[in-house]
Amino acid sequence: MSNDRYVSPLSERYASREMQYIFSPDKKFKTWRKLWIALAETEKELGLPITQEQIDELKAHAEDINYEVAKEREKVVRHDVMSHVYAYGVQCPKAKGIIHLGATSCYVGDNTDVIVMSEALKLVKKKLVNVIAELAKFAEEQKNQPTLAFTHFQPAQPTTVGKRATLWMQEFQMDLEDLEYVLGSLKLLGSKGTTGTQASFLELFDGDHETIDKIDPMIAEKMGFEACYPVSGQTYSRKVDTRVLNVLAGIAASAHKFSNDIRLLQHLKEIEEPFEKSQIGSSAMAYKRNPMRSERIASLSRYVMIDALNPAITSAVQWFERTLDDSANKRLSIPEGFLAIDGILDLCLNVVDGLVVYPKVIEKRLMAELPFMATENIMMDAVKAGGDRQELHERIRELSMEAGRNVKEKGLENNLLELIAADEAFPMTLEDLEKTMDPLKYVGRSSEQVDAYLTQVIAPILKENEELLGVKAKIEV
């Protein structure tokens, strides 16, 4: 690696080799050749004077691209597509005259973009399904572990660690639904010519509209797609890119929320992300265990959410049948959005797979707050014993305020139970009150909700995608 040129951290630190290859030049140019073969085959099958010998010659050189020839030619003609048409023709002298016949640059460029985004979305789906699967395991393991729930990051009624995990999972599940919809709706551009009118094919096929109608469906089938977009200018609508990047931005938002919660929980020392034996948390403070992975998730997620603005703005400013101010932007925003989300999902997989839960810390914090949350039950028991509900409510409010002052102003332990036991209005001993301090009495239907969600919603998703399961993430420095 050269140290005197900028190197993208997306490729060096964050994205997997698998995702990097999908957006590599080699993938792009090999896809171009597959598209040229599909076009030539289609034209031959529809009656143009193209021989099987020419098709076989094209297929023989579909993979061994003569990159140096293409590079030298591009220096002369300043056109990437025509440079590769020329290079392909050098290897295929018999087929040279029929390569790219009737097509424009967007035939290979735009169709390849859709193919690449489709493959990239499939890889994103694979990793997203595995994140959901790991969260499902975690939720099942922790469904009965009571923990203090927060609203406004203030102590609220208890929940369970597993129930909280289902909240993260459900957002990723929504992202999966959006991804599957967009992936299922992707179509190829097909071969529609300079302004989308297929005028060149009218010339090639002597005005035979019925035959021309068969071109796009045949190309789509050969390339593994169900259809092409029915109408277009020279390019497919850039609204397609917007839809794709919005899916990635949605995943990024879910990942960011998840990572924020983990960072807060790690501050509370209740749950920690994985930490390697030799990992250094701080150059100055040797004792620190910083949530580096979760912070990186948040950092990359913000990048993806902002990146989604690029295709939206690009789509909005396209003029008529096409302009070229999309090209440079697409070369950056689409690949980088996918490379970043790939890194994010690898990090999420790594974090969820190695989450460490500290029940004793969780219990200590919960028990410090539980007396306040148990006051309604205590009051109801006192009413059953003959007390006045309104009077008891006021008294328990006053005692709660006193206990709160003891905690916040004096730094004492929460002594609400002792205060209640000593109050004549409550016919209960301290022992009676302590019996009410079982956290599981206050978590509502948390465990049952986890069971229902995992069984009714998540299990069918994992069953449907079981061939995608088993991914383990490797995290770079």
The residue-averaged pLDDT reads: 94
Class of secondary structure makeup: mainly alpha
Poorly predicted ranges:
282-287
Share of helical residues: 55-70%
Element-by-element helix/strand order? HHHHHHHEEEEHHHHHEHHHEHHHHHH
Assembly type of the chains comes to single chain
The strand order across the widest sheet is: 1-4
The proportion of strand residues reads under 5%
Helix count equals 21
The biggest sheet amounts to:
2 strands, antiparallel
Basic shape = elongated
Measured between the Cα atoms of the first and last residue, the distance is 17 Å
Which value, in Å, is the CA radius of gyration? 31 Å
- Annotation, overall tally of beta strands: 6
What features would you describe in this structure?
It is a single chain. By secondary structure, the protein is mostly helical. It is 63% helix and 3% strand. It has 21 helices and six strands. The chain has helices at residues 9-14, 17-22, 25-45, 52-60, 67-77, 80-91, 105-141, 161-185, 199-204, 209-212, 215-222, 239-267, 292-307, 309-316, 327-353, 359-373, 375-384, 389-408, 416-421, 430-434, 446-464, and strands at 146-147, 150-151, 154-155, 159-160, 271-272, 356-357. The chain has a two-stranded antiparallel sheet with strand order 1-4. A two-stranded antiparallel ribbon has the order 2-3. The radius of gyration is 31 Å and the shape is elongated.
